[in-house]
Design a protein that fits this description.
The chain is of the alpha+beta class. The protein folds into 5 domains: about 100 residues, Rossmann fold (3-Layer(aba) Sandwich), CATH 3.40.50.20; about 70 residues, Dna Ligase, domain 1, CATH 3.30.1490; about 240 residues, 2-Layer Sandwich (D-amino Acid Aminotransferase, Chain A, domain 1); about 110 residues, Glycoprotein, Type 4 Pilin; about 80 residues, Beta Barrel (OB fold (Dihydrolipoamide Acetyltransferase, E2P)). Helices cover about 25% and strands about 35% of the residues. The protein contains 16 helices and 38 strands. α4 packs antiparallel against α5 and α12 runs antiparallel to α13. It is elongated and about 95 Å long. About 5% of the residues have low confidence. Acetyl-CoA carboxylase is a heterohexamer of biotin carboxyl carrier protein, biotin carboxylase and the two subunits of carboxyl transferase in a 2:2 complex. Keywords: ATP-binding, Biotin, Ligase, Nucleotide-binding, Transit peptide. This protein is a component of the acetyl coenzyme A carboxylase complex; first, biotin carboxylase catalyzes the carboxylation of the carrier protein and then the transcarboxylase transfers the carboxyl group to form malonyl-CoA. It catalyses: N(6)-biotinyl-L-lysyl-[protein] + hydrogencarbonate + ATP = N(6)-carboxybiotinyl-L-lysyl-[protein] + ADP + phosphate + H(+).
Length: about 650
């Protein structure tokens, strides 16, 4: 076994490999870019070497620098993780030439599966079922069109070097072929430097089922059950599970045997994944082989009880497979959800920013989290926006899905937009629960899965009560919301009036001791009673005082609020100070009153905007607007006098 290895990757997969190495007593070397100097994989490693600037092409993709780092630190082997150099045959060959073990398959095996068309030809020879299609070298547009006509529409065009959904087009009609082929070819050239295409019959509503295989240098090979990865968006996986719903033992054995034949046909060594399309009639067809450890490998680990990274290290060091096919046992059901910094409700656009709040659920009762970030880390524009993989395991699929839904509800992230609310809707969708899956599942249910929810009055009431409780706690006063005399009325409940803004809507919340109060408040969760109904939510704020930018987490969704007591719009400069001041830096959006106008208590006088949120400035009492100091569009600083206000004279009898 190795005593020191270098991990040529970053993020959660680098941290994942390091955890196994630590358990096995293997020292680790991290590599990093200038953007990752404080990253978690750097902190976890025994040593770390700077590769270069932030862009991957100048750091993580520099094979020469990675090899130099391995030689400099005396690493005996390199684990490539996934992505970056993991399926780069030249890098694997360079490692071998340098006398460093590449923890992956031989370069020849990577090359054999690197071209989709060449891989199809090899699989056909090995007796692995293929989708009817054309994988020939003749790339004349007329030849490709002829093949499509012969196969019958719809067909799928794929870049021969493609992956991750790039260079793929579905063509439903012959008249659309030329345009789709041009687009797929262009995308293949841009992404992979190769615009050659293959043409395949488009299997309607298939499932994406893959088989985990493992081989060693002694010629032993096993398959470790299957994973269903049908839930995808833009041909990229979102949720994976193992075993596949509805899988029979006969079908599992048939697919497993085909996957093993595929691996042995190219003299494969190590962990690999053979991906198949599974038709509704039980027919299955080879898609491709990923010559590396998969992102979704944890679900296989959960149902087999095996550490696949430990298996990789053993095989790479020349040891035989730890178990034979007959020794492998399956237990329960596992599901993985990929948590990304992305805006699912706006086209799954990737998001960047600082993870101001990151509170994952507790890793207990079959809940596992693979991540490479902690609170305070930045999600950079330079790399994949994955925050974590949330994996759950239970005795049954039903129990696993319930556990996953609850874990997603407990996952609290603020600072960047995430897909957590989308994932939870997906997990709770009745068709998914029923196991009615195919690769078009998300696309055909977008209206349900991507609907933007609206806030209700309860959220504003909860935010207002929590805001007041935090103010009083910060002032070292009682946690009792009603202990102060402000708002006292004879023979009436004590009141607080809080202005709450959420999703552009401003609500004035009146809190009464008998109707709404904070019944419990700790550092992460609050329980608020609204009209006799107890509500619980996570909360987070970076503010102190007012106005307060407050986040409530309800069922995995963050709701962003701006809260401010209405009375605090009035300057506290003294009895003769009748001005109203800006509570924050911002811009005047609109003026709602005129100079000399009489107004009533609580009436909106003007609207400010800051951080894309609007806040109304309201009259603290009945009175008259004497002077307006700003006009719409003008910027104001916190504390600036906005207008002069004269309260109505009190009547004395």
């Amino acid at each position: 076994m190795f005593s020191k290895i270098l991990i040529a990757n970053r993020g959660e997969i680098a941290c994942r490999v390091m955890r196994t190495c630590r358990e096995l007593g293997i020292r680790t070397v991290a590599v990093y870019s200038a953007a990752d100097q404080q990253a978690q994989h750097v902190q976890m490693a025994d040593e770390a070497v700077l590769l270069g600037p932030a862009p991957a092409r100048e750091s993580y993709l520099r094979a020469d620098k990675v090899l130099a780092a391995a030689q400099q630190t005396g690493a005996q082997a390199i684990h490539p993780g996934y992505g970056f150099l993991s399926e780069n045959a030249e890098f694997a060959r360079a490692c071998e030439s340098a006398g460093i073990v590449f923890i992956g398959p031989p370069a020849s095996a990577i090359e054999a599966m690197g071209s989709k068309s060449a891989a199809k030809a090899l699989m056909e020879q090995a007796g692995v079922p293929l989708v009817p299609g054309y994988h020939g070298a003749d790339q004349n547009p007329q030849r490709l069109r002829q093949a499509a006509d012969e196969i019958g529409y719809p067909v799928m065009l794929k870049a021969v070097q493609g992956g991750g959904g790039k260079g793929m087009r579905v063509v439903g009609r012959a008249e659309d072929f030329a345009e789709a082929a041009t687009a797929a070819r262009r995308e293949g050239e841009n992404a992979f430097g190769n615009g050659d295409l293959l043409v395949e019959k488009c299997v309607l509503a298939p499932r994406h089922v893959e088989i985990q295989v493992f081989t060693d240098t002694q010629g032993n090979a096993v398959y470790m059950a299957e994973r269903d990865c049908s839930l995808q968006r833009r041909h990229q996986k979102v949720i994976e599970e193992a075993p596949a719903p509805g899988m029979t033992e006969d079908l599992r054995q048939a697919m497993g045997a085909a996957a093993v034949r595929a691996a042995l046909a190219i003299d494969y060594v190590g962990a690999g994944t053979v991906e198949f399309l599974l038709d509704r009639d039980g027919s299955f067809y080879f898609m491709e082989m990923n010559t590396r450890l998969q992102v979704e490998h944890p679900v296989t680990e959960m149902i087999t009880g095996q550490d696949l990274v430990a298996w990789q290290l053993q095989v790479a060091s020349g040891q035989p497979l730890p178990l034979s096919q007959s020794d492998l046992r399956l237990s329960g059901h596992a599901v993985e959800a990929r948590i990304y910094a992305e805006d699912a409700e706006h086209g799954f656009l990737p998001a960047t920013g600082t993870l101001h709040c990151l509170r994952p659920p507790a890793e207990v009762d079959g809940v596992r989290i693979d991540t490479g970030v902690v609170q305070g880390d930045e999600v950079s524009m330079y790399y994949d926006p994955m925050i974590a993989k949330l994996i759950v395991h239970a005795d049954t699929r039903e129990a696993a899905l319930q556990r996953l839904a609850q874990a997603l509800a407990d996952y609290q992230v603020d600072g960047v937009v995430t897909n957590i609310p989308f994932l939870r809707r997906l997990v709770l969708h009745p068709d998914f629960i029923a196991g009615d899956l195919d690769t078009g599942f998300i696309g055909t249910r977008e209206a349900e899965l991507l609907a933007t929810p609206t806030a209700d009055a309860t959220l504003s009431q909860m935010a207002g009560a929590l805001h007041q409780a935090l103010l009083e706690r910060e002032a070292a006063q009682s946690r009792d919301l009603w202990s102060q005399p402000v708002g006292w009325q004879l023979n009436q409940p004590a009141q607080r009036c809080i202005e709450v803004e959420c999703q552009g809507e401003i609500t004035a919340v009146t809190l009464e001791a008998e109707r709404a109060c904070v019944t419990r408040l700790d550092e992460t969760r609050a329980q608020v009673t609204v009209n006799g109904h107890l509500h619980s939510a996570g909360w987070f704020t970076r503010d102190r005082g007012t106005p307060r930018h407050l986040t409530l987490f309800v069922d995995g969704r963050p709701w962003h609020m701006v809260c401010q007591p209405v009375a605090e719009h009035l300057s506290t400069g003294g009895d003769e100070d009748h001005s109203l001041t800006a509570p924050m830096n911002g811009t005047v959006v609109s003026i709602l009153v005129d100079t000399g106008q009489a107004v009533t208590a609580g009436q909106a006088l003007m609207v400010l905007e800051a951080m894309k949120m609007e806040l109304s400035i309201r009259a603290p009492a009945d009175g008259t607007v004497e002077t307006l100091w700003f006009q719409p569009g003008e910027a104001v600083s916190a504390g600036a006098e906005l207008l002069a206000f004269v309260p109505a004279e009190e009547t004395v009898e």
